[in-house]
Amino acid sequence: MSRDAILARIRRHRPAEAALPDIHAPAFITYQDRYAQFATLIAGLGGHALTLAPGQTVREAVDTHWPAQGRVVDTTQAIHDEAASPHDWADVDIAIVPGQLAVAENAAVWVSQDALAYRSLYFLAQRLVMVVPRDALVDTMRDAYARVGFAEHGFGSFISGSSRTADIEQSLVMGAHGAMAALVVFE
Amino acid sequence: MKDDSIRHPAAAREFLADRERARWHDSAIWWVRQKRDAQMAQLPEWETLRTMAEQIKAHTLSRLDEYLEAFERKAEENGVVVHWAADADEHNRIVHGLLAERGVNKLVKSKSMLTEECGLNPYLEARGVEVIDTDLGERIVQLRHEAPSHIVMPAIHLKKQQISELFERELGTEPGNFDPTYLTHAARANLREHFLSAGAGLTGVNFAIAETGGLVVCTNEGNADLGSALPPLHIACMGLEKLIPRLEHLGVFTRLLARSAIGSPTTTYTSHFHKPRPGGELHVVIVDNGRSEILGREDFYQSLRCIRCGACMNTCPVYRRSSGYSYSYIIPGPIGSTLGPSRDIRKHASMAFACTTCASCDNVCPVRIPLSEQLVAQRARAWQTGALPAGKRAAIGALGVLTRHPALFALAGKTLRKVFPILPAGLAQDNPYSRPGRALPEMPAQSFREWWLQNRKKP
Amino acid sequence: MKIGLFVPCHVNELAPEVAIATLELLEGYGLTVDYPLAQTCCGQPQFNNGDLKGADRAAGRFAEVFAGYDYIVSPGTSCVSHVGAHTPDALSKTRSRVYELVEFLQDVLKVERLPKPVYFPHKVSLHQSCHGLRLRAHATPSERMLPYQSRLERILALVDGVSVVYPQRRDECCGFGGSFCVDEPEVSVAMGEDRVDGHAATGAEFIVGAEPSCLMHMGGVIRAQDKAIRPLHIALLLTGRGGA
């Protein structure tokens, strides 16, 4: 009911037509070394970036970075734990998930996977590992949005570092509600 | 909810009575402005991005009905249920209806200024729903029974000692432990229980994409993500101005939002929702509540471009020295001082005058809203509607008369100049102008006009 | 070249020496300057308090009084910015002829020296007044990602011995704000104190700016609170009156 009244009021009050800009026309910042930019930035955002050594597996890299572990769920593997409800991920210590691309300007990783039923894994895990192909590192969010896809039940998220807050006297604290720490592994 | 009988000058006087605390408030927020500047300095395309963001929003507003319909169509195709609310009351009824139909008695909420505007929390609480604000700052002010004092940093007015005392009382934390990390992690443990036991999660919306029917929610804490990923019901509430035409436009807005808001290159989580989670429901409530009226006002519709970053507050020298609680409308600072008076000029007129017209807000606004012009235009509405204090109206009226009569004008000036120096010393200091620590101007013996007549006027 | 001197009300009554210095400076370049006696108020107070009709009437008067001049020059940046930006479109010819003093020296006269050499061996902290800064592009505001420039800095390069510094918050408002200074005296004074302290923290002896009202307001704070730094209008400095 209200729908039609609201839309009618908007039609009556439409401001003068304004054109859309071409957001692809201007040159935006590019980074000579995207990896260095990404790695430097994420270090200040509660995260860490590394590149796999030749022959090293993701799991080996994670074990070295975080030796003491509780429950680990690795959805980059074909066979991994499943959850019957989103609450079942509440006790996960480390989640290892695939990231589809990474962004140099803000250290964000795009996460959206079709094999995962409950995305709560990303946010309940105490520590989050995102595994990204080294060649999927772009300069800016403009480049990123040209490449994102929504594989996971229409969900996808850019995740940059760890969950954090500065709500108490502007003091930056890692681990507000989501992951206390983040690791981005480029392979 | 906020007390809308607040008048800015009186409330600011009270806030400034504790000058040390006011200084701390000022520098805490200025720190965020500096972080914003540092982020800007790293992007050569900063001004181009602002112009693009302005243009995209201006375009969207010029076809808002079409984009809303397109959004609705796509969202419904994706299995999202779309509701429309004409006003705050309808919004609250819709949300409560969704909860009541499913027997939900606990709701976890992430930050939404819209629900503050609509007074959702007290509405639901009166009907037996437990509402848990999950953004740390919002949780703090909720436990203190206060409104947010800033739209991005709701508890910026509080010192850690106060938060420690609050958490000791409410969450059982150690007395005297003021460590922000300790306090934050105590809240994390407590709120996690609420996330896991809530029957529904409510989030705000930063952007709604007409092209895909998707919603974007940005947080640093991840509270919107937990609140929407765990409970079976996700309700997203949005003002109808949140639309953008295409997914690719996020490549402009997400670059500006966190840099402007908190001086960070991005928020930790920029999450895109298109469908309900498996086994769950996703409902979106599109709210008008006066927005379509503002759209029709030539002077003010640009305020609908706002993406609620709060940068105008952080740069505002008056806001920093008076705090969010000196403003009568739920959104304080420059953007609130046009949105509030647009809604009710009589209630919120004092906000439009809580401004020196320094125009710094115009320059930080990522969507280039001419805020200082809007505030002055709101003063004109105050003048026209009689919402102005009587003394001010009379003074300006008198000035108008003098302006038309040069001789009278000169006489009035001279009288002022001659009377001030012979005022009793007490009166010269104990007047509203001087009381806070400012001397009256020194009165020269001769005006320039008199000097000119004596020295330069040709016979 | 016919030049009409526009002296804002508060300068006329409270800071006549600033108008005298402005006149002397212009005359120093060999110009004939007239001060039309019929001038009153430009209408900014009415405009800023919502009395748009009153403001338009004042603007109309202003345009009539200054109709016969090629240029209208003033030591008051804020009033100039009002006439330049907020008067009715019908007065566009007046708008385009009105200049703040430093703008006029740089953009019209294109001066490369001062009429009389000025030696001012002092450290001065520049006060970029908001309306000059953000409405008249007197300098690049710190909020914008644009190449840096400053008119006041450029004109002070013509003075011998002076050293120019900026306060930490380069262009924060001083809290004057026209009728704001009486509507919100506590906030206004708190801003003024912070601004004066910021300028003083640079070690400068003078706060130099191009807007008399900001300087007057900060001067009131300085006198009431017995601070050492002194406000100084740029016209006084450029005519060698600053050393007192």
UniProtKB/TrEMBL annotation, chain B:
Alphabetized GO MF terms: 4 iron, 4 sulfur cluster binding; metal ion binding
Domain named 4Fe-4S ferredoxin-type is located at 296-326
The record's section on Pfam families has: Fer4_8, LUD_dom
Q: Which GO biological process categories is it annotated with?
A: lactate metabolic process
Name the InterPro entries for this protein. Answer: 4Fe4S_Fe-S-bd, 4Fe4S_Fe_S_CS, FTHF_cligase-like_sf, Helical_ferredxn, LUD_dom, LutB/LldF, NagB/RpiA_transferase-like
User: Membrane-spanning regions, if any?
Assistant: none
- Alphabetic keyword roster: 4Fe-4S, Electron transport, Iron, Iron-sulfur, Metal-binding, Repeat, Transport
Superkingdom field:
Bacteria
Put simply, this protein is called Lactate utilization protein
Question: Source species, please?
Answer: Crenobacter caeni
TrEMBL record, chain C:
- Which GO terms label this protein's molecular function in UniProt? oxidoreductase activity
Organism placement in taxonomy = Bacteria, Pseudomonadati, Pseudomonadota, Betaproteobacteria, Neisseriales
Where would I find the Cysteine-rich domain in this sequence? 4-82, 124-218
| Entry GO CC | cytosol
Q: Which InterPro entries match?
A: Cys_rich_dom (IPR004017)
- What is the protein named? (Fe-S)-binding protein
